[in-house]
Design goal:
It is built from four helices and three strands, in the order αβαβαβα. It is globular, with a radius of gyration of 14 Å.
Length: 111
């Protein structure tokens, strides 16, 4: 899979996951929990863009949104435990950010 294809796949997945949140105004009092799973060492730019997009849809951290971040620090073998941790919280949506994380999640659910 090329880098461009993975990028398009990530964009599609994020769009599908966020679309239900943007379908209507957020219910008063409901705080959504998003799990952010990332393979690399830093995900600042990607996460900042994600937060901005959510703000434009009316979802603001600390008001009606919590983002639980888990970062594998470049250690592929940590992704499974980190993903399980996010699912146990539980989160409303799990975002697999970055090509390596998407490949991991795709492998888990493709079986």
């Amino acid at each position: 899979m090329t880098r461009r294809t993975v990028g398009l796949l990530v964009t599609l997945i994020l769009g599908l996951l966020v679309a239900p949140l943007g379908a209507k105004a957020p219910p008063a009092g409901k705080v959504y929990r998003i799990g952010w799973l990332y393979f690399g060492v830093a995900s600042g730019d990607m996460l900042d863009g994600f937060r901005q997009g959510l703000r434009e849809l009316g979802y603001v951290e600390g008001q009606n949104l919590t983002i639980e971040q888990r970062n594998a620090g470049g250690q592929y073998e940590r992704l499974s435990d980190l993903a399980a941790d996010l699912v146990r919280l539980p989160v409303d949506v799990l975002v697999a950010a970055g090509a390596a994380t998407v490949r991991f999640v795709w492998g888990v659910f493709a079986d």
